[in-house]
Amino acid sequence: MKRTFSLAICLLLLLTACGNADVSETDHTEVNAGVQETAATETEEVPDLPADLAFGGSVFTFGVLDNPNARNPIVMEELTGEALNDAQYNTIATTSETLDVVIEEYLIEEGYPATNTIRSIVAAGDDVIQVANLYCAAAPVMLVDGYALDYNLVPNIDLSKSYWDQSVNQSLLLGDMRYAAIGDLSITTHDLTFILLFSKEHITQNGLESPYDLVNEGKWTMDKMQEMMEAVTVDTNGDGSFTAEDNYGYLGTLKNVLPSFWIGAGEITIGLNDDGIPEMSMKDERFVTVIDRIFTMTYDNNARFLSKMGQDVNEENINMFQENKGLFMDCSMFWVGALRDMETDFGIIPYPMFDEAQGEYYARVSYFMPPIIPITNQNLEMTGAVLEMANYLAKQSITPAYYDISLKGKYSRDEESVAMLDLIFDHRVIDLGDTIFCPDVRDGFFNQMYSNNKRDLVSQIEMNESKIQATIDKMVAANQ
């Protein structure tokens, strides 16, 4: 390992420690100590890059998607004293210095699905973006349409290292080809992890069991959640109807209710078989039972607020939760930050298991932004080295800043929530029907089913499976 690399790591650790200065020493001394200890002790697994690797000031550009529901920027403009910003800045600065590259960023602003920019670049034969973060549904399409490269062709990357996300990356395959790889540099899979928030005031006022204890004891199930939801649901103004003026057990955005619960129950709609080929699993008897259970607990008891707002983040639900009109609320990690000024204390827990026999909690990762490599990339050696180094450094600085400070130190209100975050991030799941094939599956028919309270899942699958399978077959055939 060349000497500039070792010096750069020391510099990064020093800067990261300084970047935590915005956190109160009085309230978060232990958190800061944990961040520094993590940075100091997790450097053993380092990139296996050639000692003399350098690229003579070559320009490396990340293309990042402009999206309001996740933090996509990678290259920060300056140090601001804010922990996450400064960790990102230092990661890129140290990667640039270590490999002698100039790292820049290109903001893709055209909107969904953000592929036209890459297609135009490839058509023109321009090597102006080396790595592009796109919507997950677009990533494999770019590979099979000939606009993106197989990561297996890229040298200097070792996806077995801990700074690459093992649980997420096992889903980013098509046959034996890899269209994307995610590591600690990308935080969209963190931002788009879905959780449940709960009102501590409602728990106390209604004499309910501690959700933390239920989770820790393996008793946090759909039955238990329904029981608690119904206990707090009340027609507050006594007008005989349930409106936004009343109290509810659950506040959930329409398109997120079903997938958040079914993944929490250990089910997925589409996964990869042993050959890396997408395969439907929606007809499984347990899956059908889980879907029926979700409808029952969220439709048959007035316990869920029937908001018709359909966007990814329901502002009506957020406002009601802030006004303490809901016991539980569905939320992405990114939008937890919107509740920082909420006066009533809240806690963070995973979605419930189907039953106690399940034995494991799972957390849903929704519509994330994986990085693809355009085929116009003319320097794969540099690309691999930059990604390997940046993700390694990100594990030392960005992940602790995001996780230990930006979330644990600022948003969560107690030590129990901190432990819940550990559990949630260790058990994240990507369902291809909720992400890659979302247009045909989640948004294709599940969203309509749930919005209209139509529970005939088997017939809905029969009506849609040929279309879904055709999409899968076309993708697989184009890849052969």
Q: What is the residue-mean pLDDT, rounded to a whole number?
A: 87
Strand runs, count: 14
* The CATH architecture of the largest domain: 3-Layer(aba) Sandwich
Question: Strand percentage, roughly?
Answer: 5-15%
Estimate percent helicity: 40-55%
Radius of gyration: 23 Å
Reported for the largest beta sheet, the result is: 4 strands, mixed
Strand order of the largest sheet: 2-1-3-13
State the helix count: 18
The separation of the N and C termini measures 39 Å
> What is the approximate shape?
globular
How would you classify the helix and strand content by structural class? alpha/beta
- What's the CATH class of the largest domain, please? Alpha Beta
Written description of the protein model:
The chain is α/β, with parallel strands linked by helices. The chain folds into 2 domains: 3-190 and 368-407, Periplasmic binding protein-like II (D-Maltodextrin-Binding Protein, domain 2), CATH 3.40.190.10; 194-364 and 422-478, D-Maltodextrin-Binding Protein, domain 2. The protein has 18 helices and 14 strands. The strands form 5 sheets. The protein has a 4-stranded mixed sheet with strand order 2-1-3-13. A 4-stranded mixed sheet has the order 7-10-6-11. Strands 4-5 form a two-stranded antiparallel sheet. The two termini are 39 Å apart. The model is unreliable at 1-43 (pLDDT under 50).
